[in-house]
Amino acid sequence: xxxxxxxxxxxxxxxxxxxxxxxxxxxxxxxxxxxxxxxxxxxxxxxxxxxxxxxxxxxxxxxxxxxxxxxxxxxxxxxxxxxxxxxxxxxxxxxxxxxxxxxxxxxxxxxxxxxxxxxxxxxxxxxxxxxxxxxxxxxxxxxxxxxxxxxxxxxxxxxxxxxxxxxxxxxxxxxxxxxxxxxxxxxxxxxxxxxxxxxxxxxxxxxxxxxxxxxxxxxxxxxxxxxxxxxxxxxxxxxxxxxxxxxxxxxxxxxxxxxxxxxxxxxxxxxxxxxxxxxxxxxxxxxxxxxxxxxxxxxxxxxxxxxxxxxxxxxxxxxxxxxxxxxxxxxxxxxxxxxxxxxxxxxxxxxxxxxxxxxxxxxxxxxxxxxxxxxxxxxxxxxxxxxxxxxxxxxxxxxxxxxxxxxxxxxxxxxxxxxxxxxxxxxxxxxxxxxxxxxxxxxxxxxxxxxxxxxxxxxxxxxxxxxxxxxxxxxxxxxxxxxxxxxxxxxxxxxxxxxxxxxxxxxxxxxxxxxxxxxxxxxxxxxxxxxxxxxxxxxxxxxxxxxxxxxxxxxxxxxxxxxxxxxxxxxxxxxxxxxxxxxxxxxxxxxxxxxxxxxxxxxxxxxxxxxxxxxxxxxxxxxxxxxxxxxxxxxxxxxxxxxxxxxxxxxxxxxxxxxxxxxxxxxxxxxxxxxxxxxxxxxx
Length: 684
What we know:
The protein is an alpha+beta fold and 684 residues long. Strands 8, 9, 10, 11, 13, 14, 16, 17, 21 and 22 form a ten-stranded antiparallel β-sheet that branches. Strands 6, 7, 12, 15, 18, 19 and 20 form a seven-stranded antiparallel β-sheet that branches.
């Protein structure tokens, strides 16, 4: 027997165990099949899975291969990754000798997560078509009355569920058993697929099937290998509510072990200004200089110039009518004011009038009639580029030049590259070109173009590791879409474009942040478009403190008193980041649910690693009652903490146990209002 940290195996059995979770896999020697016979927490009972699971499934040239097929074991090796992951890599050969399949499993210290991916190698002499991949496929017991918590683990339903692009994470929870299964899908955008009790008693996660609206497909040449995205699962017991694991083990795994870009970024943004609203494209040097001066006086830490700076899409040359001296003096001025500069670029768009389109029309997406078209919206003023062509190298050099020449710290990369949030005709997605070098047909273009965009982001980070890339939901390809695939290659996601009365804006901010967190790190949620000069701007900041604080609008309209208040908030947010690293944490505030009109809501951003403290936000959204008691979780029960207002005034001194079980009273007279508090260890 070979012993490793978290993996042990013989020629008939593989056992994975890190002291938190255990999984036993039967190898093909006896039955010819590969299947999980046991998967449970190390301690206690677990009733969900059968003792014979399909384990994985995919189709090659319409023929199904799964753990129930006949395989020959070739070898097993130890597997590690750079995040202290440890496990095993199992290599199988199919009975027809057509496929070499590698299954890779990783476990992590102190985490219930088991991460899995497949590597599928073509052993034949002809290309084959790969489709309908379930990376994990578990056969479950009679648990069809479980809650299925989908859409980032937040929306609950009972019954068969076939997932969608928003299902980066699903939890299947049985409240009677107090047990459940977390399924995290790291596939990109519209190509992720997870299902629960759909057409059979199984839980599946992987890539979209061939009958989906956006089907996954990849052609594998002889001797080539395709590597799937990863899927992670967590099994748990002794949890009354699935939100318990959503607030603890899930964000811990994502933050520590997934390899997301936010965890790599040394300095996180804490207060961002963006020019898009109300100025749109109507910007010039004089206006930007004025806005930068006012934004700096208000304490902004990052200043992003949105659309309107270039003479056209595609060439990305500076509009010299608007910026006669170029952008460098503008960015130098922004930096001289103590802010980090940023810039908007439509990463895959060009004007038909641009020099680059005229020189290389073959670089662009083709529709079913083999004509260049705009994937984003029905507008002929731009066309969409295909990243499977020379466009990739071209736009990479454009972005590298902008980033390095101007010292940019923030890139907002926008507009459709695979599918559009605004088109609902599946024929108006992907690329139909038959002669693009990296995809054979429209279906293959989906996956290839996502992967090329991620590679572009990685190479930009190689050039400048401190760069914050904001990959918008439009680039992701779905309305308000964000997922783990994006988080591994970009730091943030411009998640929204909405405006309206102040109360409506703030409810939308908090609702959107609640919906996606804590499964998704809240600092990745770039939620626009609150304006700096709004009458309730301070409520905007309090609401945004639960995500990535970003403001738009016209800071020149602020009064001297408002400038001072803004700067106090900005300095406080930066101080909280310096003391508690709040931008990597967010949890639900106990006793408060989804933000709704007529209710109270709240969040907490407590550093669960150091337990030094963090911040709490509490909001009255039209509720009838004017006072609530709030309870703060995840602190050291024996240590003494001070609860302070933003101005530093101490309102309570309690130990962590009392803050959790006795709480503190918060009162608000205004029907729509919010308060922020710091929770910090007492120095006494």
